[in-house]
From TrEMBL:
Stretches assigned to coiled coil: none
InterPro entries the record matches: Aldolase_TIM, DapA-like
UniProt entry keywords in alphabetical sequence: Lyase
Lineage top rank: taxon: Bacteria
SMART domains, per the entry: DHDPS
Source organism per UniProt: Streptomyces nogalater
A Pfam short name: DHDPS
UniProt keyword Chaperone, yes or no: no
Name of the protein described by the UniProt record: Dihydrodipicolinate synthase family protein
Biological classification of the source: Bacteria, Bacillati, Actinomycetota, Actinomycetes, Kitasatosporales
Entry annotated with the keyword Magnesium: no
Record family assignment: Belongs to the DapA family.
């Protein structure tokens, strides 16, 4: 492991980490042509870190074959223009198989989705991530943490076994807890990614994050880049101006326990003529009377 440097991966995490949508065709299948066009739009918009098979990509609603297709299409379209951080998860053999598949496609990192299991022990969390990280020692590994009970010391324990654990996507909606977790785990040891996107980016950056995830970036890459530029400059008033600009859009996504998180993004893309609005259960398209508001927001950004 000592011969492997992860500087490029660390740099890619300290950025806008885009979570592309997975567009669907009229027959319900993955619309590969629309997917490629949306990926090109992100790349042309200056986005250099892509997470295929993230939650905004409806990871849990895709079949294993579709997840492979999404990863393959993303890697092919990105080429050397972006670093791929592929989402993996489910049972351990599936997660390891997906990680190796991503590696073979040229991905530089994997993001490990929070284990979906009613009984997650902190020690078992370490075991799960360790098995994945040890299976792909040449890839950077980024745990996606949504569990507020997980102590920072467990991340330290994981990284002591697996030096390829180089970053963390932290998605517990509590800035004080994030600040404490990062310091307990090792603030300078990992790249900290604000995993709850633009609404939380300013507060998490103030506590040590240097990158943030984004679903909004699918709609308006320039808006996300503007926030990153402000945060990198330490210009919090400028960052909060962007925050105000995106506030309503993100409130619509977060409402009712984030029921319409992906729905609102796809609705905005549909309003711009970029893909169909279709999402899969357990998500659902927006009702007709709520579509106009999303379309108006998206139109304002597309100028």
């Amino acid at each position: 492991m000592s011969s492997v440097s992860f500087e490029a991966q660390r740099a890619a995490l300290a950025d806008v980490v885009a979570i592309p949508v997975t567009p669907f065709a009229a027959d319900g299948s993955v619309d590969t042509a629309a997917h490629r066009a949306l990926l090109r739009r992100l790349l042309d918009g200056g986005i250099t870190t892509l997470t295929p098979n993230g939650n905004t990509g409806e990871f849990y609603a895709l079949t294993p074959e579709e997840r492979r297709l999404v990863a393959e299409t993303t890697a092919d379209e990105a080429g050397d223009r972006a670093v791929i951080l592929a989402g993996v998860g489910h049972d351990l053999p599936t997660a390891i198989g997906s990680a190796r598949h991503a590696r073979d496609l040229g991905a530089r990192m994997v993001m490990v989705h929070q284990p979906v299991h009613p009984y997650v022990s902190a020690a078992g969390w370490v075991d799960y991530h360790r098995a994945i990280a040890e299976a792909v020692p040449e890839l950077g590994v980024v745990p996606y943490i949504r569990n507020a009970q997980l102590p920072g010391a467990r991340l330290t324990e994981l990284a002591d076994h697996c030096p390829n654990v180089v970053g963390v996507k932290y998605a517990v909606p509590d800035a004080a807890r994030f600040a404490a977790f990062a310091r307990d785990a090792g603030l300078d040891r990992f790249v900290w990614v604000a995993g709850l996107a633009e609404p939380y980016a300013p507060s998490y950056f103030s506590a040590g994050a240097t990158g943030f995830t984004s679903g909004l970036v699918n709609v308006a890459p320039a808006v996300s880049r503007n926030m990153l530029d402000a945060l990198r400059a330490g210009d919090y008033p400028a960052a909060m101006k962007v925050w105000e600009q995106i506030r309503r859009f993100e409130e619509l996504r977060a409402a009712q326990g984030s029921a319409n998180n992906v729905t609102v993004v796809k609705e905005a893309l549909a309003a711009l003529g970029l893909c169909r609005r279709d999402v899969r259960p357990p998500s659902r398209p927006l009702p007709e009377d709520e579509r106009a508001e999303v379309a108006a927001i998206a139109a304002g950004w597309s100028i």
